[in-house]
Amino acid sequence: MRRSTPAALRTLALLAAGTLALAGCAGQQGAQEGEAEGSASPTSTLTISAAASLQRSFDEIAQEFSAEHPETAIKAISYDGSSTLATQIVEGAPVDVFASADEKNMAVVTDAGLGQDPVIFATNTLVIAVPSGNPGKVQSLADLAGATTVLCAPQVPCGAASARLLENQGVSVKAASQEQNVTAVLQKVIAGEADAGLVYATDVAGQDKVESIVPAGAAEVVNSYPITALGEQPGAQDFVDFVLGPKGRQILEEHGFGDAAAGADG
């Protein structure tokens, strides 16, 4: 058997040392990357229930919140009529944050001993929505009496506000249908299934398939939107604070919501 020379042995030793050094660097880099990834991984998840009229603004708020709070993942946001959401929460639905379109349905939740003291974060008013081109020739609340009109159901915030607005103006309307949330009203108008519907000003903002008319008395019927964290889930109060903060306020205003300080109970 041929023996290795001292020079060859030294070469092999150097190669082995170099291989170990590279492996050590790679292992250290992998550990650092793993630590960085681990530090960005969510440590808590949130489930949010919000009034249907908040969908576009809250979808954007959720994106901004997630970018600033990688430790908290938003598992789901359920959008529906506030009365429906309040009933679900009281009956035990696992919800960490509730944003209602009125104080009445928020009270259903807080009176059941759930949530912290709610804070008003936005306001909204009603408009008459008509299909593009206004085929029903609706110009005022009075015209709704002779048109095919869709309204929110009375127990829904937009329905309660619509009833007050119509009563204040002395107009009686027999609705073709009463929907469980304002989004359903708007969709029927967009689809041409109704000549008109009463929806929030924020619902028609940026819509090209509907036109809106600000009815007389709308400024006197203002819906106030409260929000609260439910339970002790980490990140829930952070989300509430984000909605109340500068970025949340800016997004809400961009979507047409009014300043919370200007509103009264709706």
TrEMBL record:
Membrane-spanning parts: none
Signal sequence region: 1-23
SUPFAM superfamilies in the cross-refs: Periplasmic binding protein-like II (SSF53850)
Keyword Secreted applies: no
Family affiliation: Belongs to the bacterial solute-binding protein ModA family.
Pfam annotation, one family: SBP_bac_11
Lineage: superkingdom: Bacteria
InterPro entries: ModA, ModA/WtpA
Protein name in the entry: Molybdate transport system substrate-binding protein
Keywords linked to the UniProt accession: Metal-binding, Signal
Keyword Metal-binding attached: yes
